[in-house]
Specification:
heterodimer; A: mainly alpha; B: alpha+beta; six-stranded mixed beta sheet; 5 helices
Amino acid sequence: MPIAPTNDVAFRPPDGGWGWMVVIGAHISIGFAYSTPKALSIFFKEIQADLEASYSDIAWISSIMLAAMYAGGPVSSVLVNRYGSRPIVILGGLMCGVSMVAASFGNSIIYLYLFIGVIAGCGLALNLNASLTIISKYFLAKRPLANGLAMAGSPVFLCFLAPLNQYLLDKFGWRGSLLILGALMLNCCVAGALMRPVGSCLSSPALQKSKEQSDNSNTKQSKQSCGSRAKKFLDLSFFKDRGFVIYLIGNILFIFGAYAPIVFLSAYAVSQGVDQYSAAYLLSIMGFVDMFVRPGTGLIANSKWIRPRVQYFFSFAMVFNGTCHLLCPLIKSYTFLVVYAVFFGVGFGMVFALIFECLMDLMGNERFPSAVGLVTIIECFPMLLGPPTAGFLVDKFDDYKYLFLMCGAVIVTGGLFLFVMNFYNYHMLEKQRRRQLNPKNPKDQDQAEMQNTLNHNFFAKESTVPGNETGSDPQGELASSE
Amino acid sequence: MMMQQRVKRVGAAQEGESYFPLAGGHRLIFIIVIMPDSWMHLCSLVLLLSCTHINAKTVGQTSSPAEPVGQLPADVRSVVLKGRSYTDHVEVSSPINLTLQCTWTGSGSKVDNVTGYWSKDGEDIDNSHTTLRPENQQFNLQRMFTIKDEESLGKYSCMFGNEAKIDFVLAVPQISDVRDKPIISYVGDSVVMVCKMDDAKPSPKTWLWFKVNHTEKEEIDATAEPQRYEIKMDGKVTKLLVHNLTHLDSGLFHCGAVYAISTAMSHVELKVITIYEPLKPFVAIVVEVLVLVAVILMFERSLAKKRKAAASGNHVGDTEHATNAPAATTTTTTPQAEANGLEETTSTRQRKM
């Protein structure tokens, strides 16, 4: 097994400078990825009338797009590992743009499924994965903040795309709107252009020369690790990693309950006697709050108190989100619904700002691209099953409160599970670290020294934090050496 | 259809309006004089007889009208007014003998009598003036109207002197779901325009489509031009498909729900544009993307050139400082080094380790 720390020692994440331009690029890319499936629903009524299809047939377009975006994760990981982020984001942008333009000439619903659903969905999958990977390459000390800023792209773009789509629809009809939307998605190529490669193993010969001057064996190892990473399509060895499995289970529970309340919030408000426009306004409030909470959470997670315990912060955010949903059925008046929407926005934003930061924290730079691909393809299932299950509960009991109770309960369970299991995981890792600090063989000794190096470099700018040995990359390295 | 109407009357009356409670506990009066002249009427008569409450008590002090009732179905609409005025909307989809009953609880000041009369669309109806005396502190006024065609529809008002009035607005079921924004379509493309009658209202007999040409409504005959127009009808929904659109097709289209008594109209606006309209912003955005990508890549290339020049300068001038060379090479290979002092310090720190 390659010793991953070597690469980190050679390619230190810049943590600033051009990195902030990369964050802008990731912001745009992630923004399009998450907001396009939702913003497209504005066109559905028109498309439904023109193509004479039923509403459920049309709604499948969004579902197929989301499913393709999540399922395309592993393919995206392999490509990103091989070619780096920039070409992949540019390719993703081109795929999205061209498929939207092609879709604008469509005359059947199957054609739209293919072009908007599958091809654009795959383009978005490439974008998402590559953007997250490049953030992990550019940032380490400021990574939570960078993640928060990049993930804020989702609510920002939704806020901006929704009224724009409505305007385009009124001016150009759905065909012209899809054409122009395709052009807008080509801006992902601009985002890709911003993602200058850094510290990849396929760098210039000059880099290799410098490595030769330092340590020959290291070069060979780094070459080896670069090659071997790209081999596996679905690297199932991740399932042996305790931290990864814990994260995965917690995430599955969260995603299952996360989207249904959004889908049914306005319907619930209408059932409580609120008029349709005010009900739609609730979602805008949620999105608006989300926009500011994500970078804010990134900032908080970056602080020296939270950073080493970011997994606990993540589980707290999940429990907060779930509790909001559990309290929702008690709400009957519009004012309190607005308060609920605000708290929902806060909880949702906190979780999504940290969702990939925690995975980066667990996996480290090297394994993150493959890990995120695996996580997204597995998350596909709860994401597609969640809203229909909630809808089934609403139909069966004719009452929205069971939906909120179910979602809240599932999310709180996920949060508590993460909290307890992470406590256990940290405990085990601490035991292992102590074992390594009193090494019994030279290999362990080398590793222990390298971990100390990493700790020193990582916290060079900040004061020494007690218990920081269990934070960030060293955790990933310890886990991989099990 | 008669049965439908009767059920609708009961339902509507119970929902929103004041209801006329008869003495004796019966809920509704049906004055049914039907001479079945067709099998349809016979069926409806059978249905009616199976659930009819017939109360022979007359209401109030007004006498029954002397108009001939003929073969039309009959229905009653009652309103009890406690204030000064009230408006009731009545949906009439086929000819009917409608009895309108007004009850007024008085204005508080004790009056012995009041002149009650009827008016239609603001004009008093002749021979409808009667002097009313209060019965159980209420003034009652009723009259039967034959609603047989479009002219019979309108606003019927029962007036209690100058003190109170109840308006009954008789109209065909209206199409409430009207699209306010125009449908946009493209030259050469096809478009589908939809008109929908509410589920709660009765289905029209048929639908008609009209195109407005220079303020003139012209009926669209789908059979005359089958390649261009296609009309689909399915109960409460109608669709007009127009193929091979041209600019001339832009404008207002009217759909009419045809009922036995009249036609309810709604409209849809169509705007036909060429593909060049959305193409202009499309090209503008593509140009913007290309420009930005070019600028970013050129900026990067110029930075790389500067660094290469600096690096070759370093190599040439500096053979004694061997320890510095690796540091310089390391910093030059990572592109953002110039912009980021931190990067350099960390890499030098690594070297020291």
